[in-house]
Design a protein that fits this description.
- It contains 9 helices and no strands.
- It has about 200 residues and is an all-alpha fold.
Length: about 200
């Protein structure tokens, strides 16, 4: 039975994205080129350019096509444990080749490619941030977080140190680091005990 043009197109797209990840792991993103990907995948480079405008756009699609966990949050009675669990899963994913180095390269590429930056934000950063804010909002509604804590700010605070460790100083993110970081963070985000009694006014 012969395959349909649509099926052949899907197979070709899958082969191109798989080749992008494989070559990126083998030679590194700086040496990766559309020409090299086309040659390895057995297609013309114009076939790639018809679908992707740049190497960065192709890498983004290729990484998002990987069969990796969704990094969703659990919803138990312990929000701190749920955040730590999700962060541990994310750290393990980034430590597993070829994901970590290629994600670092993609974020670097987004700094000078506005289209890649916009797609990365729309397709990965915003959805992940939304999941985190939703989990924090549930905890806040249940009284596990301070009711006056800004959740968008909390999301930035939760994410910032992990990205700093991963992207800026590029040091391993250990389970101990994740546990200590969230423990320190929740000291400030937890509900404050209500003041006991009334303040005594001192007349002078």
């Amino acid at each position: 039975m012969t395959s349909t043009p649509r099926r052949r197109g899907a197979d070709r797209t899958e082969a191109i994205m798989r080749t992008t990840v494989e070559l990126g792991q083998e030679i590194g993103y700086p040496k990766l080129s559309i020409e090299a990907i086309a040659a390895r995948a057995g297609v013309g480079k114009h076939t790639i350019y018809r679908r992707w405008s740049s190497k960065g756009a192709l890498l983004l699609d290729s990484l998002l096509s990987l069969d990796e966990p969704e990094l969703d949050f659990s919803y138990t009675d312990d929000v701190l444990a749920d955040l730590r669990e999700q962060a541990h899963a994310a750290v393990e994913l980034l430590a597993r080749p070829p994901v970590g180095p290629l994600v670092q390269a993609l974020i670097a590429e987004a700094q000078h490619d506005p289209q890649v930056a916009a797609e990365l934000k729309e397709r990965f950063i915003n959805p992940m941030a939304g999941k985190l804010v939703k989990r924090l909002r549930t905890a806040q509604e249940q009284g596990h977080l301070s009711p006056d804590f800004d959740l968008d700010l909390a999301m930035s605070i939760c994410s910032g140190p992990l990205y700093f460790q991963f992207l800026i100083i590029q040091e391993p993110i250990t389970r101990e680091y994740v546990n200590d970081f969230f423990g320190a963070l929740f000291t400030g985000m937890s509900p404050r005990p209500a003041a006991r009694g009334k303040a005594v006014r001192q007349d002078r």
